[in-house]
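Weekly puzzle thread! Below is a chain. First person to post its structure in token form gets bragging rights.
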Amino acid sequence: MNDITPTVLAALGLPVATDMDGRPAAFLDVPPPPQVASYDGLRIERRSAKPSGVEGEIVDQLRELGYVE
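Winning reply:
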């Protein structure tokens, strides 16, 4: 279970954090990915503070699936 995030990061060519418990799966057959110390405290940049306009549609879909009342 701990290998999921490192595997996804490696498959996308993104650095794997050294503080992660898992490691990329061997079946990827890619060179060892670059490493970063941690993703904790990483500032997430948003494209825009404005709503995209699809939020209502997503909530409707979640409601139809029974996830939202």
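Puzzle host: Confirmed. Bonus trivia for everyone else. The chain has a mean pLDDT of 88.
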